[in-house]
Amino acid sequence: MDSVETDLHLTTTQVAELLDVHPSTVKRWCNDGDLEIDKTGGGHRRIALHEVLLLAELREIPTLLDGFAPYQDRVWTAIQEAVGDQRFDGVRELAMEWLKAGELWRISRLLLVLGRHPAVEFAAFCDEVVRGFMQSVGAHWSTGELRVGEEHLASESLAEVLIRLREPFATAPDASRPLAVVGSMEGVRHGLGSWCVRLLLERHGWEVCFLGTDVPMEDFAAIQQSREASLVCISFASPAGAADMVRAMRILARFYEADRPFALALGGDLAEEPDFDPADLPFHDIGIFGSLRDFRDAIAPEGSMRLPDTMGAVR
After folding, report:
1. Where is the B12-binding domain (predicted)?
2. CA Rg, the chain, in Å?
């Protein structure tokens, strides 16, 4: 077993979760002496993490901590905080530490564990882990702690994680599902935001026509018209700003066809709010979103966006 230096102790329920067994099995192992235990002042059992991992190795039981030595205690704590309290600071700190150490595989492994965990909502995962980590990467780059190449490594690692998280939802095309066109605006070469939107929509039963990064507004309009999509989602990121968002809306408005209505969703980190009057634009509805959770709430059943009737299958 890879050594783990930690004083971390788990409850019997946590041990059962880690080893994917019934809590009664853990209690039996404790009673039989297979697991050494400590007891709290109230008489509750606590088992040292290193004892649990030793038993797992002896019995050839795989755990989500396999391969994380010597970080097993921090990984376990970070996952528990994310799952139980929706706090992702520990995850982001570990990811940054591993990025600086060049251990990108650890980042991918941890994020896949979190992204697949049933208690971690996907929109929160994108907001707090994907975007939160990349914001931290940007801050470290601006102070000279990271190089441009390391920023690219982080971005590509997250893209690979999102691709793997999409696999269970990558189904054959289905014309009965409502269709959305998704991509990043012209000049934006970072695609993580649009990837997150794509996966969220697919998880909510949408068909997605994914255009990728650096897409001219005219192409968004052309694809929407040719496919009669009900929703167009455009991701913005630096160096694009509020003025670029307004310009994009006005270009799309010139191509808008009333007999092929669509709602327009725009999202990204902007330093200022775009200055425009929705009444001056022809779209069925317009939404500007600062987080994927806000976007999820807007398109979910009884959401705040007005969507064309062709979206009835989702609403």
Report:
1. 177-315
2. 23
**Looking at the predicted structure, is the pLDDT value of residue 312 above 70?**
no
* Dist. CA 129–CA 305, nearest whole Å: 26
Prediction pTM value:
0.89
Phi, psi of 62 (to 5 degrees): -70, 145
For residue 278, cis peptide bond before it (omega within 30 degrees of 0):
no
Contacts of 1 (CB under 8 A, 6+ apart): 53, 54, 57
CA distance 40 to 10: 12
How many angstroms separate the CA atoms of 58 and 254, rounded? 67
pLDDT score at 2: 47
Tell me: the pLDDT tens digits for 27-60? 999 999 999 988 877 778 899 999 999 999 999 9
CB contact at 8 A, 37 and 30: yes
Q: What is the DSSP letter of 129?
A: I
With CA atoms as reference, report the closest residue to 293 among 130, 111, 94: 130
Closest of 149, 150, 25 to residue 98, by C-alpha: 150
